[in-house]
């Protein structure tokens, strides 16, 4: 049985369906959301390899890619610290790149005097593309450094 909050979310989605595990809106009518426009678009990922982002479901990958590129609004990528992988997931195409997002939210960890995890190394590799925007005791929000257009 669905809770009142779950029913409210489902009722608010004008097209497609909500994945019961990830609560991702899945559907074919991306144009509907592209026409609406949003202030903020928040996405997550399952795998980070270099700058490339992957998800297990090909349907969700298609939707995330379309939302990232076709829906207006500032794009936010939320990372939990477990996404970095040693090699790209077999048989999957990336739905986007980390530098296509305006902001990244990630766990804040002191990088001093400790062994760096795979996630730390991945973030270290992309840090030159981002600058700290908000740094809290348990999370950081990094903002994409925009390249000057000449």
How would you sum up this structure in a few lines?
With 150 residues, the chain is α+β, with helices and mostly antiparallel strands. Helices cover 25% and strands 26% of the residues. The longest helix has 13 residues, at 58-70.
Helix content: 25-40%
Order of helices and strands: HEEHEEEHEEEHEE
Basic shape: globular
The main sheet comes to:
5 strands, mixed
Distance between the termini: 57 Å
Rounded mean pLDDT score: 81
Number of domains: 1
User: Which structural class do the helices and strands define?
Assistant: alpha+beta
Count of beta strands: 10
What count of helical segments does DSSP give?
Answer: 4
Lateral strand order in the biggest sheet: 3-6-8-10-9
Assembly of the depicted chains: single chain
**Whole-angstrom Rg:** 17 Å
Overview of the molecule:
This protein has 150 residues and is α+β, with helices and mostly antiparallel strands. The chain has one domain. The protein has helices spanning 4-12, 30-36, 58-70, 118-126; strands spanning 17-18, 25-26, 40-44, 47-49, 52-54, 74-78, 96-97, 103-107, 130-135, 139-144. The strands form three sheets. The protein has a five-stranded mixed β-sheet, covered by helices on one side.
List the defining traits of the structure above.
3-stranded antiparallel β-sheet, about 150 residues, about 25% helix, alpha+beta
Secondary-structure map:
Blueprint: H1 4-12, E1 17-18, E2 25-26, H2 30-36, E3 40-44, E4 47-49, E5 52-54, H3 58-70, E6 74-78, E7 96-97, E8 103-107, H4 118-126, E9 130-135, E10 139-144
Parallel strand pairs: 3-6, 6-8
Antiparallel strand pairs: 1-2, 4-5, 5-7, 8-10, 9-10
